[in-house]
Amino acid sequence: MATTRTSLEAQEQDKRLESAKRLQLQLEQADLRLEKHNKDFSTYRLQTDDLEDGEDLSLKDPAIVATDVSEQISFLRKLKFQYLEQNAKDKYVKSIVSDIDDAPIVTADDNRELAALNEEKKAKLKVAKEALAEVQHNVRTLAPMVEEDYIRVKQATERANFLAQKILDARLALLRLRQTHPHPRLTITTAEQKLADQVTEMQELSDQVDAVKKEVKVVKEKVKTGALEVEKLRIQQTESERMMEALHLEDDDNRLVPLYDWYTASLHLHRSIFNLEESDSVSENELRLTYRLTESATATVVLIFAPDTRELAGVETVGFEEVGVDTTDIIEQHIQTNDPAGLIALLLSRARAALDGDT
After folding, report:
1. Measured between alpha carbons, how far is 349 from 223 in angstroms, rounded to an integer?
2. Which of 124, 146, 170, 212 holds its CA 20 to 30 A away from the CA of 13?
3. How far is CA 89 from CA 86, 102, 108, in A?
4. Which residues pair with 302 in a beta bridge?
5. What is the CA radius of gyration of the chain?
């Protein structure tokens, strides 16, 4: 019996929940905005400019009208109560002071009938109160559930609208892409094949880069070896010049020819290895050397020697800073070791390495 009653109550609650949902949906679709109108009505204040000639401000302002209506309702209720009280008193007095023949006869049956009628009305009122209490209880119980369902439905609706907008944006973007890239378009198979070809090509290029780096390394080693050889030849040239000065050879001495040939060959070798374009002895202790780095770039090294000791005293460079080579530390290091040949070889190798890295 209890199970049947619980089932009936659940069905009744479901029906009421469905009715509440339908009513809420109708209210949302009706767009009544009662709270907004009530707030506007309560806070509205009529401007004096809106009044016509002879009209009172109190008859136009809704807030004042609402206050007057509330006061009038309260006054009418009091007036009704006073009327009922006076009517009852009047009937009671008339029933007492009037003649017995004219007075209404109230018997015990009438009192019992009225008592039964009152009991019946009390029973109906009790049933109505119980029903009202049950309805209020159901409302208090179901209201949070309805609110949760409403929030979920609202969130789902907002998400559906958001997803619909995203779908529309995606379709528009796809339409733009199709207009931008007409047929024939790149298919997945063609794209994968193109990617495979690009991977193969990148691997081949990487192998070529490794091979070129190895060749560059070998060439640098050869250049370094050639620089050392040139330095040895330069030392020999210096010693030969000293020997010539010591011997005081004459211009027509036959021993100058081999020395000249040797010097020419050394200079030619130096030019071929280091791309020496121009050498100029500015003074007795200053030598200006210009080298070709690339087809459009040159660099100049000015070697300044001490007049007495013939040791390297200072170095000036032109064109190395433009290719990104810092020559300060290199110059100081080689001035301390008195190594002009190593200085020139290192400067040229750094400059050419920087140019190779840029390319």
Report:
1. 9
2. 124
3. 5, 18, 22
4. 288, 316
5. 58
Give the long-range contacts of residues 280-289, CB within 8 A, separation 24 or more: 285/310, 285/313, 289/344
Beta partners for residue 315, in sequence order: 303
* Tokens coding 212: 């070129």
Model confidence pLDDT, tens digit, residues 184-217: 777 788 888 888 999 999 999 999 999 888 888 8
Percent helix / strand / coil, the chain, rounded to 5: 75, 10, 20
Phi, psi (deg, nearest 5) at residue 325: -110, 125
Dig out the tokens for 330 from the structure. Answer: 């290199």
Average pLDDT, the chain: 77
Phi then psi for 278, rounded to 5 degrees?
Answer: -150, 135
Q: Where are the domains of the chain?
A: 112-182, 185-249, 275-357
Which DSSP string corresponds to 161-178? Answer: HHHHHHHHHHHHHHHHHH
Specify whether the CB–CB gap between 231 and 342 falls below 8 A.
Answer: yes
